[in-house]
Each structure stands twice: as structure tokens, then as C-alpha cells.
Amino acid sequence: MVFDFDKPIERSNTHSVKWDNLDTTFGAADVLPMWVADMDFACPKPILDSIEERNRHGIFGYTTHPDSLYESVIGWMKKRHGWNVAKEWILYSPGVVTSLNLAIMSFTQPGDSVIIQSPVYPPFFSVVKNNDRTLVVNPLIEKSGYYSIDFKNLEDQMASGCKMMILCSPHNPVGRVWTRTELDRIAKLCEKYEVLLISDEIHSDLIMPGHKHTPIATVSQYIKQNSVTCIAPSKTFNVPGLTTSAVIIPNPKLRMEFKKTINRIGIGMSNVFGMVAMEAAYTHGESWLEDLIIYLDDNINCLMEYLETNIPEIKVTKPQGTYLVWLDCRALNMDGKTLHKFMINKGKLGLNNGLDFGPDGEGFLRMNIACPRVTLEEGLNRLNKAVKAWRNSNNQKDSKDI
Ligand SMILES: Cc1ncc(COP(=O)(O)O)c(C=O)c1O
């Protein structure tokens, strides 16, 4: 491995959402934060170099999106995902959550129904509700830790007049990389019931060995013309603080509506550093990403082995994509809030509460394993400590019962 992902980098006192203000977030300053989805790795050198070079110029005036930026997005989508994207299909937005809001504002009216599939990244709920649209949830089906889509329920929901579906592909937090067959079924239902599909593909570059991401816009002509695909270098290259993402809309009418909303809100201009970083990432970041995926996969294997050996009460299905692990802690028999607090108090471990991803996240915790191996090991030791405390208190209860 050429790149050094093993070296811990101090992130405290950088105004990091993940690492700073832990007492406010978790009620304890000494927790190890393994929650919000950014990585504890420095981004690849070509990104740092591009920012430094742009910085040396010293003037950061209003800037257009250069052709070279479009070409980098086109090149990346072709090389990594086999999708031939035309330049005119690409728009830019500060972030994927912004794009989801823009899509809802552009293509639906207050009161319209929008489908999401839970458990899912919390803003999927809020973007619908905050825009006064009607939230329709199609819970994923979980069988022995494997999540799949309830197509029967999805069809009923679409048939009842839903206008839009927001797809999380790959799916945070359950780590599913949807197969071409699954995507094809979604696309066919969208066609049958004229539902516009918004596909959040922010995790699409973080695919574990043996799996393949398919951009849903490539599965049929219909869905290509009736979908909006949101991508970003932010998860892939750890640059979410540079707030720059892209939106791909092949249909000119939809694109015009989306662009109108961008202009109405006044967010058509991108951040100078975000643009150079995006271009450098998509042009020169591939070898770093390939090493990163190997490192993340090793981290996941390390976690699974540790849990099997030391904490059999907590079950994990290996994620097919993303660096987020969905810990099934239902055997600990605690409600979501108590479970989350328990890990903070007994393990000094800061994880995401599964309940934040929907009611079907009860009894689950989400752990972010995009960190150096030593940090992961420390996190696992803390998890173990908490579960040992749980076993001890259970044993005490049992002996009292006797
Ligand atoms: C599925 C998904 N979409 C969007 C985002 C955030 O995107 P952005 O920071 O570009 O708004 C995340 C971050 O974790 C995510 O998991």
C-alpha cells in the first residue's frame, strides 16, 4: 500500500463536527467519536497541492465552472461507473443534501408525497418534512441482517399517487449496494406510475471488493430521462468541508427547472477551493481511492473478527459499500436511547443512535470505521468494555432472581 492510512491525525480543535464539542454532542468530553460520516484520513496529495496552488494566486474572485472541471466529472463517471455523461447534463450545488432540497422544491408541490426507504440517512426525512411535502416511508425488509426492498409495498405506495422517490444508492446506514436487478425493478415501477427518481449516489465510489455500483440512470432510457443523480467527491476523498457537489440531469426540461431553483436561491456559484479539489480528486485521485478501499475493507474484516470473538451479542452484516457499519445490538435488550447512552457512559464511545435513521433503527448503532486501525481497535475495546458491563449487570440481576 502506497498511502499511509495508519497514522492518526489530531483533529480536536479544528471545529470538527465529529471531534469537537463532544460534551455538547454526547454529554461527555472523553468519548471516542466514531459517528458522523467523515474520515480521519488526510485527503490525497493532489487535492492538497491543487488547493495550495490556487491559494498562492491570492485572489479568490467570482469564478465560473471551468471546462476542465466538467471533464473531470465526465472522466470519473466513465472510468469508475461506465456512464457516459454529457457536459450539459452537469450542474453544481454546495452539497447533496442541498441538491435533495432543490429537487423537492423544483419538482413537487407542498403536500405531494415523496417516498424514502428506512432506516436511512436522517436528512431524507427532514428534506421532505421541512418542505411541507408528505413523507411516505417504505421500510426495508431485514432478514438475518440482510436488507432488501419491499417491492410490493413500494408499488402500492407509488400506485397511490406518490410524485417522487428519493433513493439512497448505496444505502446508508445498512451498506447495501443495490444490484442492477433491484435498480431495474425500481426504474420499472417509476415508469409505470410516473414517479420521478432522485438518486443520492454520494457513497457510490466506496464499494467493497466483490460488489459493483450501477448508476440508476443507466438502467433504462426512461429512468435516464426521469431521474436526478447526486454525486460528490466529499465522502470518497474526505472533503465535505469544501462543500462542492455535482448533479446529473440528462432531461433538459428537468434540468432547466432545477437550474431555475439554483438561481432563485442564488447558489449558482461554487467555492473556488471546492472546485479545484473536485477536479484534482476526479482527475488524480483513483490510486489513492483504490488503496483506501483495501484499508476500509481490512478495517471491516478486523471489526467483524473482533465482534465474533469478543462480542457475539452484537451482530454485523458486512457492508457492501460505505465505511459505515450497522451494529445490531438488539440482543442487549435496550431501547434505542438507553443503548446509545449506555455506550457513551460505559464504553466512552460516541456512535450514531440507530433511531435517528427511523423507528426501524431501534436497537442498532452506526459505527464509522474510516479511521486508522489503532483508532478502530480502541473503539472496539471500548465497545467490549461496555458489553462486559452489560453482562455483569445481567449476571447480578440473574443471581438476585435466584
Ligand atoms: C446518503 C448521504 N447523502 C448525503 C450526505 C451528505 O452530503 P452533503 O454533505 O454533500 O450534503 C451524506 C453524509 O453522510 C449521506 O450519507
Describe the structure concisely.
This protein has 14 helices and 14 strands. The chain is of the alpha/beta class and 402 residues long. The relative contact order is 0.16.
Description:
By secondary structure, the chain is an alpha/beta fold. The chain has two domains: 22-44 and 286-392, Aspartate Aminotransferase, domain 1 (Alpha-Beta Complex), CATH 3.90.1150; 45-284, Type I PLP-dependent aspartate aminotransferase-like (Major domain) (Aspartate Aminotransferase, domain 2), CATH 3.40.640.10. 44% of the residues lie in helices and 13% in strands. It is built from 14 helices and 14 strands. Strands 2-10-9-8-7-3-4 form a seven-stranded mixed beta sheet, sandwiched between helices. A three-stranded antiparallel beta sheet has the order 11-14-13. Strands 1-12 form a two-stranded parallel ribbon. β3 (113-116), α5 and β4 (134-137) form a beta-alpha-beta unit. α2 (45-57) packs antiparallel against α11 (272-284) and α6 (151-159) runs parallel beside α7. The longest helix is centred in the last third of the chain and has 29 residues, at 373-401. The protein binds pyridoxal-5'-phosphate (PLP). Pyridoxal-5'-phosphate binds next to α4.
